[in-house]
Specification:
The protein has one domain: NAD(P)-binding Rossmann-like Domain (Rossmann fold, 3-Layer(aba) Sandwich). 47% of the residues lie in helices and 15% in strands. Helix 1 crosses helix 8, helix 3 runs parallel beside helix 4 and helix 4 runs parallel beside helix 5. The chain is globular, with a radius of gyration of 17 Å. InterPro entries: NAD(P)-bd_dom_sf, Sc_DH/Rdtase_CS, SDR_fam.
Length: 253
């Protein structure tokens, strides 16, 4: 049996660790060629090398998603090196906030909005024309459960992820008839390096985070990756404009 994404090409931002790394590896395991990008060049190159050593096909390009020139170069190089662009997982993002709204900092606001909103917009506006020209393509953006409701002490982050959902839905409607599907994944708390650092600072957080989810545990990056691959698959061919919660039942409460 051929692998489900054999002959296809996927682009993954924020691919040096966590959800992005897991998704890049999942695409490669499913047969796709993968272009990885991140601002962490050393870690990103290591992930790409590991994929190649395991028999996959991957390359890495450093990209700051808030810079139009970086993003254009990334998309252009993906097409030049691999010949096409079938899937894009716009996953690069930041989380820098721990204050109530009135205590917020303008520099933090700008940093979060630049990466989480402008970065996704920059990626989409360069990816979509390539997919439209090809007559097909799938984009998946990383939003958050914070983009589906409130996030106390993270109002700016929440607003940024609501914006990602808005960009996703609007693009899905605008380009659906051109063969391009656009969806978002909305994870709750996922077991990443960022989470582990927070738990090291305050071990009590692990139980708190587990108890936030009715399923009784923290999510795994591979579970988000599986959802991304599903949304990119032919099985999701009638799915577009969706903000899919991956939250262990959090939004069901």
């Amino acid at each position: 049996m051929t692998q489900p994404f054999e002959g296809k090409v996927a682009l993954v931002t924020g691919a040096a660790a966590g959800i992005g790394e897991a998704t890049a590896r999942a695409f490669a395991d499913a047969g796709a060629s993968v272009m990885l990008s991140d601002i962490n060049q050393e870690a990103g190159e290591q992930v790409a090398a590991a994929i190649n050593e395991a028999g996959g096909k991957a390359a890495f390009i450093r990209c700051d998603v808030i810079k139009a020139g970086d993003v254009k170069h990334l998309v252009d190089q993906t097409v030049e090196q691999f010949g096409r662009l079938d899937f894009a997982f716009n996953n690069a993002g930041v989380e820098l906030e721990r204050n109530k709204l009135a205590d917020g900092n303008e520099d933090v606001f700008d940093a979060i909005m630049d990466v989480n909103v402008k970065g996704v917009w920059q990626c989409m506006r360069h990816e979509i024309p390539v997919m439209v020209d090809a007559g097909s393509g799938v984009i998946v953006n990383t939003a958050s459960v914070a983009g589906l409701g409130a996030a106390p002490a993270m109002s700016i982050y929440s607003a940024s992820k609501h914006a990602v959902v808005g960009l996703t839905k609007s693009a899905a409607v605008e380009y659906g008839r051109r063969g391009v599907r656009v969806n978002a994944v909305c994870p709750a708390i996922i077991d990443t390096d960022m989470l582990r650092r927070a738990i090291e600072e305050d071990p009590r957080k692990e139980e708190v985070h587990k108890n936030m989810h009715p399923i009784g545990r923290i999510g795994q990056p591979q579970e988000v990756a599986a959802a991304v691959l599903y949304l990119c698959s032919e099985g999701a061919g009638f799915t577009t404009g969706v903000a899919l919660p991956l939250d262990g039942g959090y939004t069901a409460i």
